[in-house]
Amino acid sequence: MQDSDKKEFSDAMDAVGASYGTDMSTAVKKLWWRLLADKIEFLALQTALDRHMLDPDRGRFMPKPADIIAIVEKAHHRLSADEAWAIALESFDESA
Hints:
- It is elongated and about 55 Å long.
- The model has no long low-confidence stretch (mean pLDDT about 90).
- By secondary structure, it is an all-alpha fold.
- It has helices at about 5-20, 25-35, 40-55, 65-75, 80-90.
């Protein structure tokens, strides 16, 4: 994220906090910013927050920075060579 995203970041965090009945203090938002700013883009943060909140299990609880990173990493996961080969092998089976 960039410094120009700070206002939108703060507003997004306030909205998420309010939806979970939690006050997002300035200190908490600064902590989240420090932990996430150099790891993800703001759009990825918004998408990850949305996905977390819509998850029937995890979405019942206020997200932590690690939850957001896990969602972003899962979205950017690429198959390893072994995983891709296993999928490719299935395509040779006519009954599959």
